[in-house]
Design brief:
This protein is of the alpha/beta class and 210 residues long. 35% of the residues lie in helices and 27% in strands. The chain binds adenosine-5'-triphosphate.
Length: 210
């Protein structure tokens, strides 16, 4: 579970969002929508403790994560967080297996995750030789292998065809159904429709997904 309390982020004179109160319990999936530049990635980065909000709190249970030291933030990310970045954040010169080892050295889980994302048998290939969509799927496999309780995903279907887009949406939904709290920034209507709630970062309107 993750919860924000009166979370505000400004860059200089410009406030992206103000006094945001959101709760994403285990088992739920929240979509962050809004026009380009409205602050979806920035909000994900704050939830993932990669950026500091200007004010307000981020709570995991009773713990206010914004009060953690740099070491505490690192430990929280390592223990609880799976982050699917917009630029995938893979080790380019390493193999798929070496990238998955960063999350968890469990060959059985890795094989299951690679089968799920359609990359079985390609463990020894180097990431820089793979297409954008394949890299996006490796990044998803890494999140699957990590088995985090909080999953943040930034435009997870961006580089994918329709079939793989559906696979990613289904996988994120399954993670939520198995007990993760999932937050996904997206422009994609199918992703939004798979979520339980939708928060428009620009208007700051929260609604149930239809
Ligand atoms: N470190 C920074 N310093 C100043 N401005 C920043 C910084 N980081 C982000 N911004 C600005 O904050 C705004 C929100 O950026 P963000 O990437 O969060 O938007 P977004 O909603 O995810 O956009 P997109 O849909 O295009 O990915 C942008 O105008 C961006 O230029």
């Amino acid at each position: 579970m993750i919860r924000t309390e009166q979370l505000t982020k400004s860059f200089g004179e410009r406030t992206l969002w103000r006094d945001v109160d959101l709760t994403v319990p285990s088992g739920r999936m929240l979509a962050l929508v809004g026009s380009s530049g409205s602050g979806k990635t920035t909000l994900l980065n704050c939830l993932g403790l990669l950026e500091q909000p200007s004010s307000g709190g981020i709570f995991h249970g009773e713990k206010n994560l914004t009060r953690l030291s740099a070491g505490g933030r690192r430990r929280f990310r390592r223990t609880h967080l799976g982050y699917l970045f917009q630029n995938y954040a893979l080790m380019d010169n390493a193999t798929i297996t070496e990238n998955l080892d960063v999350a968890r050295r469990d060959r059985r889980l890795q094989a299951q995750a690679l089968e799920r994302v359609g990359l079985s048998g390609r463990e020894r290939e180097r990431v820089h030789r793979m297409s954008g969509g394949e890299q996006q799927r490796i990044a998803l496999a890494r999140v699957i292998v990590k088995r985090s309780s909080l999953v943040l995903a930034d435009e997870p279907t961006g580089a994918l065809d329709e079939e793989n887009g559906r696979m990613v949406i289904g996988t994120l939904r399954q993670m939520a159904d198995e007990g993760c709290a999932v937050v996904v920034a997206t422009h994609n209507e199918d992703v939004r429709d798979a979520c339980d709630e939708v928060f428009d970062v620009h208007t700051q309107h929260l609604a149930a997904a239809v």
